[in-house]
Write a structure and sequence with these properties.
Pfam families: Mo-co_dimer (PF03404), Oxidored_molyb (PF00174)
Bound molecules: the ligand Nc1nc2c(c(=O)[nH]1)N[C@H]1C(S)=C(S)[C@@H](COP(=O)(O)O)O[C@H]1N2, molybdenum atom
Protein name: Sulfite dehydrogenase
Helix content: under 10%
CATH topology of the largest domain: Sulfite Oxidase, Chain A, domain 2
GO molecular function: heme binding; molybdenum ion binding; molybdopterin cofactor binding; sulfite dehydrogenase activity; sulfite oxidase activity
Cofactor: Mo-molybdopterin
Strand order of the largest sheet: 1-22-21-20-16-17
Organism: Pelagibius litoralis
């Protein structure tokens, strides 16, 4: 290898992969063994397995379904040292454990400034005030009598991958890229609600505000509010989870997650931006020359290989599946290219499933592995023709003072034993 990878900080060894008995049929690579290696021979053919000998649980056992006990490792995880408290903090979607384009509700990452507000929908109100003909207060029942629509959108926190600006840090795509989720929202176009109140001719901006203790608020230009924003009450068919803003959240497609106000209680209409905390001291980046970027709303095109990755090592030689996610706040993803050798050769991956505007796209690349070290990267191109940059290209323009909006190309180093590390190459 001509490039020398700089390893990331190892956090949390993959304990769930080691220690399994080597009884399975799968050939283990360099001591790494998958779940098949831990099989109980009594359950294997030609024996009749345990679960075929007894009646199972009845239909009254699980009024609200939960995953199999064998999937208990598939959970959101936080990184304790990142924040001083868990109430003003973040956890991460286990991207290496999911497939397709939709994130299951219970696995959507959470980002709160003041913990999860627990709201009784009977007591919840949405107020519209400011530059409107008639200020209005809606109940949840009022909201649900507006015409509604269903849309699949990704939400990405602007701080996703923010820890990687100065080099490889966190060992796992869950931690480097897990501040993204993608669900189907059911909600009312915000335009219909604003029109109900009637906009004054000098109306130019709105300020959505949350009902949590943070009362989190942001300025959103009226053009965007009238274009594709939703006031959503359902995700993937069921009520929003409390973590995601139950009973009501703002959906701001393609724009940074911070603007998607949860527990939405008020929208003020104004003629200029408010310059709230979340768009001045936070969610803004300092450039090399000391000036700050202002109103960086769009989430630019980005991709990541989720498997293999540090939490999902290669377990077999021969046929293997590489997969990952790509998204763009400016449209659809047109193409994803992948390299196994740190960028010497690029091949086009197969985008599979739906290609929806401002939603994540799933890509696959089937390959054969002979045990040689690999440097994996993916590079996405969106429907505007924008090409995902390298991290060095980003730094050349933005410097190294940034936290937010890091959409640079990620590198994973696959070692001969199948273990995978977060590295950077230049
Ligand atoms: N009211 C309120 N809305 C909020 C927040 C918050 O703390 N309070 N966090 C914001 C941030 S920074 C992000 S990235 C997204 C996270 O949405 P999620 O928790 O559904 O993943 O919600 C946004 N909306
Ligand atoms: Mo965020």
């Amino acid at each position: 290898m001509s490039q020398s990878p700089k390893p990331g900080q190892v956090m949390g060894r993959r304990g769930f992969l080691s220690g399994a008995a080597a009884a399975g049929g799968a050939a283990a690579i360099g001591g790494l063994t998958g779940p098949a290696a831990g099989a109980n021979p009594e359950n294997l053919p030609p024996n009749v397995p345990d679960w075929s000998r007894y009646l199972g649980e009845g239909v009254d056992a699980r009024p609200y379904g939960v995953p199999s006990e064998y999937e208990a490792h598939v959970v959101r995880r936080n990184v304790a040292w990142l924040t001083a408290s868990t109430e003003s903090s973040v956890n991460f979607t286990p991207l290496h454990e999911i497939d397709g384009i939709l994130t299951p509700n219970g696995l959507c990452f959470e980002r709160h400034h003041s913990g999860i507000a627990e709201i009784d929908p009977a007591d919840h109100r949405l107020m519209i005030n400011g530059l409107v003909d008639k200020p209005l207060i809606f109940t949840m029942e009022d909201i649900m009598r507006f015409p509604r629509t269903n849309k699949v959108y990704f939400l990405e926190c602007a701080a996703n991958t923010g820890m990687e600006w100065r080099g490889a840090q966190l060992n796992g795509c869950q931690f480097t890229h897990g501040m993204v989720h993608c669900v189907m929202y059911t909600g009312v176009p915000l335009r219909l609600i604003l029109e109900e109140a009637g906009l004054k001719t000098n109306a130019k901006w709105i300020m959505p505000e949350g009902g949590d203790a943070a009362g989190m608020n942001r300025s959103v230009p009226l053009e965007k509010a009238l274009d594709d924003c939703l006031v959503a009450f359902k995700m993937n068919g069921e009520a929003l989870r409390p973590e995601q803003g139950y009973p009501l959240r703002l959906v701001v497609p393609g724009w940074e997650g911070n603007m998607w106000v949860k527990w939405l209680r008020r929208i003020e209409v104004g003629d200029q931006p408010w310059h709230t905390r979340e768009e001045t001291s936070k969610y803004t980046d300092l450039m090399e020359d000391g000036r700050s970027r202002r109103f960086t709303w769009y989430m630019d095109c980005k991709s990541v290989i989720t498997n293999p990755s540090p939490q999902a090592p290669l377990l077999h030689k021969g046929h293997n599946i590489l997969t990952g996610l790509a998204w763009s706040g400016r449209g659809t993803v047109e193409r994803v290219d992948v390299t196994l050798d740190g960028g010497k050769n690029w091949r086009t991956a197969r985008i599979d499933g739906l290609s929806l505007d401002k939603a994540v796209h799933r890509f696959y690349f089937e390959f054969d592995w002979n045990g040689e070290p690999l440097l994996l990267q993916s590079r996405a191109v969106d429907s505007t023709g924008y090409v995902q940059p390298t991290k060095d290209e980003l730094r050349a323009v933005r410097g190294t003072n940034s936290i937010y909006h890091n959409n640079g190309i990620q590198t994973w180093h696959v070692q001969q034993n199948g273990e995978v590390e977060n590295v950077e190459i230049s």
